[in-house]
Design a protein that fits this description.
Radius of gyration: 14 Å
Distance between the termini: 31 Å
Oligomer: single chain
Structural class: mainly alpha
Mean pLDDT: 84
Helix content: 55-70%
Number of strands: 0
Shape: globular
Largest sheet: none
Length: 94
């Protein structure tokens, strides 16, 4: 999603330093996530671990890339939708 955003919105062939930093930061946050395998989407997580500036940057990326993901990466989009619905079902059954 970050690569798609960087290529289409910012017009870069390779990841720019800002998007590279965002991607590295996101992986670091995922590695340190206290919820590990049972992690909900960050949007629904009760513990916000992103710095405010990085959270805003990832929101812009997701807002742009999310609707386009089905065209550019259909398998990943379906996996994301399945995990979203599974998490929603778990949250509603509590």
């Amino acid at each position: 999603m970050v690569r798609l955003y960087c290529r289409r919105v910012e017009g870069n062939r390779e990841l720019c330093p800002g998007c590279s930093e965002l991607l590295r930061y996101a992986y670091e946050r995922l590695d340190r996530c206290p919820y590990a395998d049972c992690k909900p989407a960050c949007k629904y997580c009760q513990t916000h671990c992103y710095k405010p500036a990085m959270r805003e940057h990832i929101r812009r990326v997701m807002r742009y890339s999310g609707p386009r993901l089905m065209v550019y990466a259909p398998c990943e989009a379906l996996g994301h939708m399945i995990s979203f619905f599974c998490h929603a079902n778990r949250r509603n059954s509590r």
